[in-house]
Amino acid sequence: MQKLDPDFVRAQFPAFQEPTLRDQAFFENAGGSYVCRYVIWRLHRFYRERKVQPYAPYAASQAGGEEMDQARERLARVLGVATDEVSFGPSTTANTYVLANAFRQMLRGKPGAIVVTDQDHEANSGPWRCLAEDGVEIRVWPIDPETGHLDPDDLKPLLDDKVRLVCFPHCSNVVGEINDVARITRMVHQAGAFVCVDGVSYAPHGLPNVGKLGADIYLFSAYKTYGPHQGVMVIRHRLGDYLPNQGHYFNADALYKRFTPAGPDHAQIAASAGMADYIDALYAHHARAGRDQTARAEVVHEMMRAHEEALLAPLMEYLAGRNDIRIIGPRHAKGRAPTVAVELDRPGEEAATALAAHGIMAGGGDFYAVRALEAMGIDPEKGVLRLSFVHYTTADEVDRLIHALDQVL
């Protein structure tokens, strides 16, 4: 497999040419990534040339509608699913609340249980837990209080014929460990239930082939994946056609409209095609050979992960060598995303503030993972220091981070 070319990658992101950011090393990518130039171009063009109601019988409108359709079609191919199985919403949290309401209606007056974890960001836990108010039984798949690990063997006793849905993260935004989505999904399907996977903290490290993973619902945020502020939602036909419609009644026959009750942001949907443009550009630069879009995305995914693991290894080695911090999640690079939270002897935000003086942009706090921190005995008020990066980060920036940590800690 060819190694990722950092110079080419960074040339695709205008932020790296911005004078105000030039001396800053960005390590809070889990809170939102830089935007690639293809998304910016598409958004700019839409607002300049096509900011009209789409799908009307005049040129500007038709062009706008075509761009929106193209975004859905191309992202669907990247994700290995059917075009109408991809829909957009204002955010992943909003999308999850819409889905939770659909399950609320489906389970009304019927016996049913939903499994959630305490490893999740609140977006894939809170909306489902709220269904307890309507009599839905909520079961918690617990994490290991020391490591934050989510053990599939601990899920087995929770699965019976009452369970309708299991919600879990592809990767936690504080634990960082990559969960085996395909294995867990097979377990849940064998028990006769559906799965909802929060991919927000994994997708920035390579958009996965959701079709191969088998998930019934897969959610992620475009603004953390080099794109605009949109929530992207995959709902497979097997579940989407079964759940009650949440959109206008006359849109009930269109799967991609069934769970979009509000008018979509036309410009941001159109700009989301820029994420697929970027994946294609990376593939063309490194591989220079044809394949279908799904296969190209898988190659790019592998290159991103290999690059990130290589950069993560020295950071994890450095952190594991300190006796004054607690690493949340795996202590090695293999099997985890480059989202590394550490508990310190001081509030995480205080340490992030100190790092900022060294040109390191990092974050501190609870990151909406309050339940995960509490389950591991960490005071959410104190929080953690979170260091997160993606494939456009360089080895020099990681070295700079380690040096800054050495001074601050």
Tally of DSSP β-strands: 13
- Indicate the mean pLDDT: 96
Order of helices and strands: HEHHEHEHEHEHEHEEHHHHHEEHEEHEH
Total helical segments:
16
Distance between the first and last residues' Cα = 37 Å
Poorly predicted sequence stretches spanning 5 or more consecutive residues: none
Helix/strand structural class: alpha/beta
The backbone outline, from C-alpha atoms, is: globular
Main sheet? 7 strands, mixed
Helical amount: 25-40%
Tell me the β content.
Answer: 5-15%
Physical arrangement of strands within the biggest beta sheet: 2-8-7-6-5-3-4
As a whole number of angstroms, the C-alpha radius of gyration is 21 Å
Descriptive report:
With 409 residues, this protein is of the alpha/beta class. The protein has 16 helices and 13 strands. It has helices spanning 6-11, 37-49, 59-79, 92-107, 126-129, 152-155, 181-190, 210-213, 237-240, 255-258, 266-271, 273-286, 293-320, 348-356, 370-375, 395-408, and strands at 25-26, 86-89, 113-117, 137-141, 163-169, 194-198, 217-221, 231-235, 326-327, 339-343, 360-361, 363-365, 384-388. The strands form three sheets. The chain has a seven-stranded mixed β-sheet with strand order 2-8-7-6-5-3-4, sandwiched between helices. A four-stranded antiparallel β-sheet has the order 9-10-13-12. The chain has a two-stranded parallel ribbon with strand order 1-11. α2 (37-49) packs across α12 (273-286), α12 (273-286) crosses α13 and α13 (293-320) runs parallel beside α16. The protein is globular, with a radius of gyration of 21 Å. The mean pLDDT is 96.
